[in-house]
Write a structure and sequence with these properties.
The chain is an alpha+beta fold and 612 residues long. It is built from 9 helices and 36 strands. The strands form 9 sheets. The protein has a 5-stranded mixed sheet with strand order 4-30-31-32-33, with no helix packed on it. Strands 5-36-35-34 form a 4-stranded antiparallel sheet, with no helix packed on it. A 4-stranded antiparallel sheet has the order 6-7-8-9.
């Protein structure tokens, strides 16, 4: 290539790069103008719908409209954030190419023949035009860069930050601090000497203890019990997504045909007193769920045979519990976390930060408050237990941490601070080289922790956004995914990412990993199956319905329920084969529980037992 060809090439590259930079810069400025004037959290349209709902609280169509609007708003918001970041990098890349191309162009031009004579005023005009072009281009590029960094992240300021800025703190003579945050009044002892005063004030405000004894029985003395084994956990369904939270069911004779509206194969149906998005848990002849509203928080035990309510235990009179309820969204609520049981005790946690233990007859053993979660949707991380420890993932806007409590006393055995942001995912127990570890996912890390000490064993920085799905686990590989991020397969021993994909990503449903395959379900209604070793997609099925429930493996089949309450059953294989579609007849976004010959589904209002 001769010098003139090189000159022409560099000129064309500079022209293309300049045009590219100009377009990207203008798009960034337009995006900044649009986002800066639009708060996705305080949308006028959404607020108007909420006001309408206050007037007509039983309008199912309006509730569905609000949910769909909120989902679309969040999708649009995170898509806009991604566009801003990507645009900034593209602008930087284009600018570098432009500078290099112009440098080459003028360097080559100076080596060509002596330029023709040009009148002085023409030279002056060219110089002036070039200066204005550089100034205008510079202003556009700098403004675009500034806009990309100045674009406001509304979610970071959503929650209690504004209220805390206006909080008033008054120290009384007794050494007690009264902190007013909005309508909430929190009484804290400023020092150890004031603790007695706080205790006496709290005791005076509590109802008579006799009433509590009538509801849940008197506290029993803590007693040691045998640690759970893998075998007796497999015989039950003691946590969210079943044994160890992995979504793998070992029961037999699971039904595949039923119909809620006609009552076909519906053995019983019972109303749950208070609403909650937590899933059923089964141990022996008991089914446990939790519920909550503005009047109270409760745990229920139903008879697995006939559905009769066996007992109700209230989560009240807990020291440190907030005097006013935290702000939560309707699709999370105050009782989103699923309870867990070790066969001797039942453990529950609520959006208030209250955690408690009950014996199998509903008597309270202990209760404590972990501090109100700073969470702009509501706390939803479910509990899990093993080796006489209760594990709690507590990732909030104030920082991440994971705790292990003594199941007998509620005392903290260990607490580990995490380099993670807020998360709505739940912990999963994974056996690696014969030892169990706790696997957690959040923004930005997926990490494993020693269940005995809480030590972080490994960590991979690979997630982003508002992480809701828990991980899948199979044969030493962890599968983590989140909408608007990606899905990754992580080898626990080497901490290497084996593969990743960003085609179909879940918002709430957790990945199911088993026997060489991984199944994911998106919030917009696509179920997809991948090869667990390579990430190759085997099949997909677009059902067109919202999915929050997690896929479950049982007897060679995938059980997948959408939010309308329709359960689709697939053959667990490399080719998509739909075996059955079964309608419940009402909205249900929770994950079912299983027992031999039975499926238990919690809808918005009822608890169902399905079988032959």
């Amino acid at each position: 290539m001769d010098i003139r060809s090189k000159l022409k090439l560099s000129q064309n590259v500079a022209l293309i790069a300049g045009t590219f930079c100009t377009v990207v810069a203008l798009l960034l400025l337009l995006n900044y103008w649009q986002v800066s004037g639009n708060d996705p959290i305080e949308s006028k349209a959404l607020l108007a719908l909420v006001e309408r709902l206050k007037q007509d609280s039983n309008n199912a169509e309006l509730i569905a409209e609000i949910r769909n609007y909120d989902l679309l708003a969040r999708k649009a918001y995170f898509n806009s954030q991604w566009q801003v970041r990507t645009g900034a990098y593209m602008l930087l890349f284009g600018s570098i190419v432009l500078v290099i191309a112009l440098t080459v162009y003028y360097s080559l031009k100076s080596k060509i023949e002596i330029p023709e004579k040009v009148l002085e005023n023409e030279i002056t005009g060219r110089i002036l035009a070039q200066k204005w072009l550089v100034v205008i281009g510079g202003v556009v590029f700098v403004s675009a860069f500034a806009a990309s960094f100045a674009t406001e992240n509304h979610l970071e300021r959503f929650g209690l930050d504004a209220a805390l800025a206006e909080a008033s703190v008054e120290t009384l003579d007794e050494g007690i601090e009264i902190i007013e945050v909005g309508d909430a009044v929190i009484v804290e002892p400023a020092d150890a000497a004031a603790e007695e005063v706080v205790t006496s004030v709290a005791a005076a405000a509590e109802p008579a203890k006799e009433e509590v004894v009538k509801e849940a029985g008197s506290p029993a003395e803590p007693r040691a019990v045998a640690a759970l084994t893998a075998e007796n956990i497999k015989e039950h369904h003691n946590s969210f997504r079943g044994p160890h939270g992995q979504g793998i069911i070992y029961h037999r004779n699971i039904p595949t045909k039923w119909d809620g509206p006609s009552g076909s194969n519906i053995l019983w149906k019972v109303a749950v007193p208070k609403h909650g998005y937590n899933s059923p848990v089964v141990w022996g002849n008991q089914i446990f769920v939790a519920g909550a509203d503005n009047q109270g928080r409760e745990v229920y035990s139903f008879n697995r045979t006939d559905g009769k309510l066996m007992w109700t235990a209230k989560a009240d009179n807990i020291q440190g519990s907030p005097s006013s309820l935290p702000r939560v969204t309707e699709d999370t609520g105050l009782a989103a976390p699923t309870v867990t049981t070790d066969g001797q005790r039942v453990f529950a946690i609520f959006a208030t930060g209250d955690v408690m233990a009950l014996d199998m007859s509903g008597k309270r053993l202990w209760a404590r408050n972990l501090g109100v979660p700073d969470n702009h949707y509501g706390h939803s991380s479910s509990l899990i237990t093993l080796d006489n420890k209760l594990f709690i993932q507590y990732d909030t806007n104030k920082g991440g941490k994971v705790l292990a409590l003594n199941v007998a006393t509620g005392e903290t055995i260990w607490e580990t601070t995490r380099a993670a942001k807020i998360s709505w995912a739940s912990p999963v127990l994974a056996q690696v080289d014969g030892k169990y570890q706790l696997v957690l996912t959040a923004d930005p890390i997926v990490a494993g922790y020693d269940i005995q000490t809480g030590k972080e064993l490994w960590s991979v920085k690979c997630m982003m956004g508002e992480v809701g799905p828990s991980v899948g686990y199979s044969n030493g590989v962890v599968y983590a995914a989140n909408e608007y991020a990606k899905m990754v397969a992580i080898d626990v021993k080497s901490q290497n990412i084996l593969w990743e994909q960003d085609m179909y990503l879940p918002e709430a449903a957790s990945p199911l990993a088993h026997n060489g395959m991984v199944v994911v379900a998106t919030s917009y209604g696509v179920v997809a199956c991948y090869d667990s070793k390579t990430g190759e997609q085997y099949w997909e099925h677009d059902i067109g319905k919202t999915i929050y429930s997690s896929p479950i493996f049982a007897e060679g089949k995938i059980y997948m329920m959408d939010n309308d309450g329709t359960m689709r059953i697939y053959e667990f294989g490399k080719v998509m084969k739909l075996i059955a579609e079964n309608k419940l007849g009402e909205h249900a976004g929770t994950t079912p529980a299983f027992a031999n010959g039975r499926i238990y589904i919690r809808s918005d209002e009822n608890l169902y037992c399905i079988g032959k």
